[in-house]
Amino acid sequence: TSGVARTAFAAHTYNEAFSRLGCHPRLIEPVVQILGEAVYMHQYKVNAKAAFDGEVWQWHQDFGTWHRDDEMPEPRAMNIAVFLDDVTPANGPLLFIPRSHKRGTLPAGHDIQTTSYPLWTLDRDVVSELACAGGIEAPVGKAGGVVMFNSNLVHASPPNISPFGRTIVYLSLCAVSNHIRRYHRAEYIAHRDFTPIEPLADDCLMQLVVERQLTEAS
Fold it and tell me: Residue 67: CB partners within 8 Å, gap ≥ 6?
């Protein structure tokens, strides 16, 4: 491996901008509507694919890891990806297999060697079958773009060997009644505070910008 940092967990606990992003109504309220109840933050991470050195994420379902490692009962959870950089076909975009979440939680093996993050991954035969049936899509977009996806959607991302870095913030939101039952992993990876998220004002991030401008001017 390159030794380049690839993930910052729990950024919302030590950075005000990330904290407010994790309570933004445009991100929280759609998930509450879909799941039909209040949500809490199961996991918050900033994933970076550094230029030239961004590493692979294997084919997996997030719920597969959350269920096996954290005992999250059901896939009543969703991911929100917020692009901090432009995401292009060249700089290691996410790869989705459309409709694969409808297959439920699939058999997986525990990969503790490919990367520093242990992950329950799918074997090649399963991925091939799913991809032949549903194809593969790479969501791309400008910085500030948002993608929401089911916690059972099969996804991965290739290495980034381009000269253009890409960073994505992931909010993993879970229905409060579906909170994890096992506290095996570190708290900064699988959060244990099941308090429902209270959305902030729609302009909460702009307010932070104004506050900092006033502080700098004083």
Answer: 73, 75, 105
